[in-house]
Amino acid sequence: MCQLLGMNCAAPTDFSFSLKGFCRRGGETDKHSHGWGATIYEGRGLRCFHDTLPACQSPIAELIQNYPIRTYNMLAHIRYATQGEVSLENVHPFTRELWGINWSFAHNGDMPLFANTDQDIFLGKTTSDTVHFNAVGDTDSEAAFCAILNALKAEFPEGLPTLSVLHEFLNHICDEIIAGRSEDTIFNFLLGCGQYTLFAYSWPGARSGSTVWNGLHYIVREPPFSTARLLDVDYTIDFSAVTQPNDRVAVITTKPLTEEAGWTEMKRGELLMFDKG
Amino acid sequence: MCQLLGMNCAAPTDFSFSLKGFCRRGGETDKHSHGWGATIYEGRGLRCFHDTLPACQSPIAELIQNYPIRTYNMLAHIRYATQGEVSLENVHPFTRELWGINWSFAHNGDMPLFANTDQDIFLGKTTSDTVHFNAVGDTDSEAAFCAILNALKAEFPEGLPTLSVLHEFLNHICDEIIAGRSEDTIFNFLLGCGQYTLFAYSWPGARSGSTVWNGLHYIVREPPFSTARLLDVDYTIDFSAVTQPNDRVAVITTKPLTEEAGWTEMKRGELLMFDKG
Asked: What is the pLDDT of residues B119-175, one digit of tens each?
């Protein structure tokens, strides 16, 4: 299994604090050492970082923990390979362009529907004639991302709908992925849609024979800001000293990153939409 | 105008030597200081690095000059903005997935056909119903890349053709882009198709009122290897000491990077295909 980190902000924010703790889990405080990746929205563009090294050893991860990139929206992933070998094409987040918008996807879980990645899965109105996105690597996660985008393109041929329509449609698509496999499916994902919008979905669970719980937790930090201590490394930050009164930051992650009041576990089947925090 | 660097190799090769000289032109020995980018194929995956900082100042550029990533195929670009503002979405190389393959594109020049990037251009058999790829940013370069991929998808709905058929078709598409605008067009590009294959096309020229010549030069290094000195920084390498007998490396760039016999300027309208060197 893997771990996810997302951040969605009302104003461009430096994510190095959260990433500092998260990357320790990639081989140091936890076992997710089969590569890591991050996609960071900047304007309409997207900075992508992918490495097959553990996050705790990767020179690229070290660089972006110290390089002050500020963003409204980012997602990151540390991988513990359960499907697909350890190779760059299997490192999340995956990215595609649809309607001139950069989309990005990171997943934690097991999806029986996508277990055979050689076979196209048609969600929503997708048909064999309307398949546009194809997986490059071998993961069920990338196959699911492509199937979701194919369904979006088939449903909205004119382009991006309103965010509330998009939210409702994604909810239907998630139901379709779970339907009839609710016991065997673990499906937690972060989906970035352009520079301001991040979707988080949770269908949590533990793999057969394992006690490790895979869910999603989130916290929304807004004034008055307080201090927080990272759980994975001895590092404390006083947010009131580094924030502005209009700041608001949502952090979504597999397991809480800090000793701090306000972390909430997402409900089963919940799809949250964060837009500018 | 911008400058291009591509490398295509018979065996995975470290490109830090070429990149070291090339990045100096991004703000130090030349004026191409409006961002830089590189895409580096690794297996079926793709490492992407983009920055709006000049290449000579970018911490990310410094990192990958020193981080020994070895690859069969890579392309890089330093930008001097003539169309589209200085922003991450306008930084080359651009990337898209087609047929489950990562494609990547970097361009130097001016294309009157794509001067109005709000308007879709249909190349080959593309129609308004078969447009799949859309530009995210504002450059004529990304618009051209999307139009080329849309034409490929319309022509070969079943997937990737043989490389010789692909080469021939790309030649036709380049003719279509130049046709009727041969005097006003400067169109030098590198197009990466998956982990082994790189296309280089040159339609060289100088912009009106400028003496700067925009073309493409290439060199193929193979045994017996000799030494080469970078032109942009005081650095010499003895290739015979760092290579194996089966190595063969093609380097393609706007202007030769080294004092070395063997650099050849591409002919007007020439489309070269490099496959594993």
From this structure: 889 999 999 999 999 999 999 999 999 999 999 999 999 999 999 999 999 999 999
Token couple for B21? 């000289």
Shortest CA distance to B269 belongs to which of B210, B202, B221? B202
Q: State the Cα angle at B247 between B244 and B248, rounded to 5°.
A: 155
**Which pLDDT tens digit goes with each residue over A242-251?**
888 888 999 9
Closest Cα to residue A60, out of A47, A69, A52, A51? A51
Active site residue B193: no
Supply the residues of A annotated as catalytic: 2
For residue A277, the SS3 value is: coil
Q: Are B258 and B234 in contact (CB under 8 A)?
A: no
Chain B residues whose CB is inside 8 A of the A104 CB are none
CA distances from A267 to A183, A203, A218, B20 (A): 15, 8, 11, 51
ipTM for the predicted complex comes to 0.93
- Spell out the domains of chain A, with CATH numbers in brackets: 3-275 (3.60.20.10)
Q: Which two tokens stand for residue B200?
A: 């280089």
Phi first, then psi, for residue B149 (nearest 5°) are -70, -40
Instruction: State the CB neighbour count (10 A cutoff) for residue B31.
Output: 14
Asked if the Cβ–Cβ distance from B44 to A97 is below 8 Å, we say no
Amino acid at A269: G
For B178, other C-beta atoms within 10 Å of its C-beta total 20
d(CA A123, CA A139): 17
Q: Which of A44, A102, A132 sits opposite B132 (nearest CB)?
A: A132
Q: How far apart are CA A93 and CA A76, in angstroms?
A: 7
